[in-house]
Amino acid sequence: MSLLTRIRVSRFWPMLWKEFIQMRRDRLTFGMMTVLPAVQLVLFGYAIQTDVRHLPTVVLDESRTADSRQLIAVIGNTGNFDIVGAVADREHLRREILGARAAAALVIPPDYARDLRAGRTAAAQMIVDAADPQASSAAMAGAQLAAGALSTQIVAERFGVAPPLEMRVRPWFNPAQRSAIFIVPGVIGVLLTITLTLITSTAIVRERERGTLEQLVVTPIGKTSLMLGKLAPFMLVGYVQMSVVMGLGKLIFHIPIEGSLPLLYLLALPFMFASLGVGLLISTIAKSQAQAMQLSFFFMLPNILLSGYIFPRVAMPEPAQWLGLGLPLTYFLKVLRGILLKGVTFGDVWQPTLSLIGLAALFLTISVRRFRKTIE
Amino acid sequence: MSGSAVDTTPGMSAVGTPTVVTRALRKEFGARVAVDSLDLTIYRGEVFGLLGPNGSGKTTTIRLLCALMAPTSGSAEVVGLDVETQGERVRARIGYMSQRYGLYDDLTVAENLRFYSTVYGLHGEARTRRLAEHSCALGLDERRNQLAGTLSGGWKQRLALACATAHEPEMLFLDEPTAGVDPAARRDFWTSIYALASRGTTILVTTHYMDEAERCQRLAFLSRGHLIALGTPREITAHFGQASIEDVFIELQRQDEAQYGVAAGGSR
């Protein structure tokens, strides 16, 4: 038999064909594959804003001078604080913050301008609602930076000298500091994880529940064709999802695509294999579709929390970082962000790629062995 | 088998080419022996019934003959091929239908047929022609675009049989094929089975319905992995001095429980 004939009559094709029909007819799966990417993209792209901006701010200006108004303008220009109004006294200020109408308050005491003019250190106060540390820390740092810059400027003007030091900060790869630029590439990784673990494992368990796996095993299909025919469609779906999210991400969130797309599609392969390994493993453990779904969600949680998808891994305690090293997504995020945002080449991401290949080999070896046992 | 009280030579209805030959077939699962020293010959075109209580080794025997697992010792030949070394070729020439039917509920009747026939290696023109005459013969044409999940029990059974025989297997395994269908559908089903056998297909069937057992040309009784009786239904009832196969079955099960205790264990 020639190779072409052999490929044409391979028992892998009917598996592929029926898998696509089933995907189209199963509403839940179809929805998970089409609606979920869109929802995830919009939800995570818009909603996750780790950089907090525009804290509503009230001002208690007891100095009422040109100097105090200059300070208010400087703070307002940082972009961290939106001056929403003035308050007359401390009690009024307190009520505004308690009522959550303001999240910050700038207090300028009566002797602010006098101290400034006299060459003494003038004090001003920034009160921030810091109940949520993540929301307040950026604002507090911003206030300090702005005041420091103003202070240097005043000293320079007063003594007629150039500032002794200037730090010029250049935010590479994401100059506007938008969260979406960081998050959207991650959405691709999270979606692929969902498709290749949750949807794949439930699809396999469904075959076992309905007795079709038992039926397939007695056909001459062979275990390899059976597994390939069952898993390959989900990889194709994964590639389509990846392309759609990238396209929408570029359209809606103006995500840069700096690097080589063929390289990204190629390096997605070891990640998909590793995730399929997990999906197949789950299918060998779960006794029902509901169990497969629960186990998959159990696997998704650390992926979202520990991979660096939302929270920076360097900020995590060491044991959490170690756990993250066992997740394929951790490495794939480096590849995704590297290629999309930084335009890196293979030479820069060979380390995470190697880790992905290692994890894929490990997960697939374990799961294929277990799966073969279940169909014997 | 030496300790057996029953003659294990084939009855008069069974002469010709053997389709299944097992010699001292044995399968162990850890410490448990599921099938022990099984010597069985089934002939071409025979409708052969395999009976026994749950845990007697029926399912294991079928799985061994379908080349789904390797025997611990002994050998089995199906359609002239060794199940241990030529498993994939064996599976290409046999058909299998279980009480779970193995149909894709979310595929139509025609799609199920197309899928299974392609998996069995039918292609192109030949497949189209074969499926057309096959579904016509089984009366499935009128429902070809109906989803399998919406079919009644009898129709599902008919479709499952069609899927298992589209590739014209030489040997057909039926594992409790009529569980849960109405009497009319069961009668139709057996008509189809006899039609297949008359065209030379060898049939091995397990069942819990004793009226069905009496329709088999020969029967084998398994107990605890051992073959304890083999012959035509009449030979077996006569040997045990019972009025019907049902009485034989109940008597054997009673002896079985008396000897080993009540718990018979699972079927796998």
Structure, described:
The complex is a heterodimer of chains A (376) and B (268). With 376 residues, chain A is mainly alpha-helical. Chain A folds into two domains: 11-48 and 178-374, no CATH class; 55-159, abc type-2 transporter like fold (3-Layer(aba) Sandwich), CATH 3.40.1710. Chain A contains 15 helices and four strands. Chain A starts with a helix and ends with a helix. Chain B is α/β, with parallel strands linked by helices and 268 residues long. Chain B has a six-stranded mixed β-sheet, with helices on both faces. In chain B, strand 4 and strand 5 form a beta hairpin.
Q: What is the count of distinct domains of chain A? A: 2
Please identify the structural class of chain B as seen in this structure: alpha/beta
Mean pLDDT metric of chain B: 87
According to CATH, what is the topology of the largest domain in chain B? Rossmann fold
Task: Supply database-style keywords.
heterodimer, A: 376 residues, mainly alpha, abc type-2 transporter like fold, 2 domains, four-stranded mixed sheet, 15 helices, B: 268 residues, alpha/beta, Rossmann fold, six-stranded mixed sheet, four-stranded antiparallel sheet, 9 helices, 10 strands, 36% helix, 24% strand, globular, disordered N terminus, disordered C terminus
Short recap of the structure:
The complex is a heterodimer of chains A (376) and B (268). Chain A has 376 residues and is mainly alpha-helical.
Give the topology, please.
The complex is a heterodimer of chains A (376) and B (268).
Chain A: H1 3-8, H2 12-25, H3 27-47, E1 55-61, H4 66-77, E2 81-86, H5 90-98, E3 104-108, H6 112-118, E4 125-128, H7 133-159, H8 179-210, H9 212-217, H10 223-253, H11 261-285, H12 289-306, H13 318-324, H14 328-342, H15 346-374
Parallel strand pairs in A: 1-2, 1-3
Antiparallel strand pairs in A: 3-4
Chain B: E1 18-29, E2 32-43, E3 47-51, H1 58-65, E4 73-78, E5 81-82, H2 87-92, E6 94-98, H3 109-119, H4 124-137, H5 153-165, E7 171-175, H6 183-198, E8 202-206, H7 210-213, E9 218-223, E10 226-231, H8 233-240, H9 245-260
Parallel strand pairs in B: 3-8, 3-9, 6-7, 7-8
Antiparallel strand pairs in B: 1-2, 1-4, 4-5, 9-10
Helix pairs in contact in B: 3-5
